[in-house]
């Protein structure tokens, strides 16, 4: 964005509207802006003797945002007109970009204990919850969904309520879990029958029910560990 130097010394309100980043963004969209213009909007204002457009150009100095990813606070403060506050604004923008660019570390479920670590909090609930854990083909966590929440020991769940999220997340494996607020992790006859039915329906739809974990007050019951799946 090459402009006459006088442009950078003028107050923003005195510049033609076609040079104002905010107006340009509103008219043509943010994708139409240069790196300097995007930075100008993020900074909000310039400093004494130089408006925000000129300040943005000085910071970038012909470089792209990617080339600034390792710039330090000290480097920024060496630029005339950049104090600690402005430097931190720029560094915050760069940090946000880094966090959006870097993939989050995947949570992998390779054992019952891995799954239980995600579910142990249920032991403290006074109401019964049914939770679904949805995994990809590498057993990496895609999503964790609260399927249902009831009072005392009453939770009414249909297999379709669980399998719906399997379709939504395009998962491979499913682990379900619910808690017994009375403290016991022992499965009821209803729990056993429900698990068998869900396992069969899951297979028919292309999913694998990997486990059903019942969380008690101090322990858990795993259908997979007991050979019931």
Structural write-up:
The chain is about 40% helix and about 15% strand. It is of the alpha+beta class. The chain folds into 2 domains: about 5-100, no CATH class; about 110-220, Cytidine Deaminase, domain 2 (3-Layer(aba) Sandwich). It has a 5-stranded mixed β-sheet with strand order 2-1-3-4-5, sandwiched between helices. A hairpin with a 4-residue loop joins β4 and β5 (about 220). α3 crosses α4. The longest helix has 18 residues, at about 85-100. The model is unreliable at about 1-10 (pLDDT under 50). InterPro entries: MPN, RadC_JAB, RuvA_2-like, UPF0758, UPF0758_N.
How many separate helices? 9
Shape: elongated
| Helical/strand content category | alpha+beta
Order of helices and strands: HHHHHHHEEHEHEE
Q: How much of the sequence is in beta strands?
A: 5-15%
Number of domains: 2
CATH class of the largest domain: Alpha Beta
Summarize the structure.
This protein has nine helices and five strands; from the N terminus they run H-H-H-H-H-H-H-E-E-H-E-H-E-E.
């Amino acid at each position: 964005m090459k402009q006459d130097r006088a442009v950078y010394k003028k107050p923003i309100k005195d510049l033609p509207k076609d040079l104002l980043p905010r107006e340009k963004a509103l008219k043509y969209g943010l994708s139409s802006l240069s790196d300097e213009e995007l930075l100008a909007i993020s900074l909000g204002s310039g400093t004494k003797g130089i408006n925000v457009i000129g300040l943005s150009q000085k910071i970038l100095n012909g470089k792209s945002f990617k080339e600034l990813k390792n710039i330090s606070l000290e480097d920024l403060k060496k630029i005339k007109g950049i104090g600690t506050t402005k430097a931190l604004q720029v560094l915050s923008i760069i940090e946000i970009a880094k966090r959006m660019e870097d993939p989050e570390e995947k949570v992998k479920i390779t054992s019952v204990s891995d799954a239980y670590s995600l579910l142990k909090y249920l032991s403290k609930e006074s109401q019964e919850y049914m939770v679904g854990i949805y995994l990809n083909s590498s057993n990496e966590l895609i999503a964790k969904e609260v399927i249902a929440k009831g009072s005392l020991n009453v939770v009414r769940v249909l297999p379709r309520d669980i399998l719906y999220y399997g379709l939504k997340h395009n998962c491979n494996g499913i682990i379900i879990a619910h808690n017994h607020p009375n403290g016991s992790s022992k499965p009821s006859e209803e729990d056993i029958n429900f698990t068998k039915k869900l396992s069969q329906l899951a297979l028919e739809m292309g999913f694998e029910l990997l486990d059903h974990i019942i969380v008690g007050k101090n322990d858990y019951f795993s259908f997979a560990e007991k050979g019931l799946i």
